[in-house]
Amino acid sequence: MEKWPNQGDVADGSVVHAMDVYEVRSRTDKRGVNVISDALPFGGLWYTKPEDAVDYAKFFSRSHNAVIRVYDAAGAVIEVREHTTGLALRDRSGASGGF
């Protein structure tokens, strides 16, 4: 699982922190979705609906930066959500708002 650096200029001496990445993927047995991330304490989790999986990832990452990617059954990214510290939520276009 990859870690994304926060935006910031390393040349000016600022600290670059890692960003947790959560993946929401369809299960091969067609029985819901898995949440996959190195940030999870118990490995992957199983949910019946993608919305529930995204809600869990948002809750678990509430105090640090995270990216949540939702994949379709073919493995293509269909949605990317960012969660930044300060509890501000934004999509990849930079617009503010909830998920």
Folded structure, characterized:
Strands 1, 2, 3, 4, 5, 6 and 7 form a seven-stranded mixed beta sheet that branches. The longest helix is centred in the middle third of the chain and has 11 residues, at 50-60. This protein has one helix and seven strands, in the order E-E-E-E-H-E-E-E. A hairpin with a 3-residue loop joins strand 6 and strand 7 (88-91). The protein has one domain (19-91). It is globular, with a radius of gyration of 14 Å. The two termini are 23 Å apart. Helices cover 11% and strands 36% of the residues. The chain has one helix at residues 50-60, and strands spanning 4-5, 18-26, 33-36, 45-47, 66-71, 77-84, 88-91. It is mainly β.
Structural features:
mainly beta; 99 residues; 7 strands; 36% strand; globular; 7-stranded mixed β-sheet; 1 helix
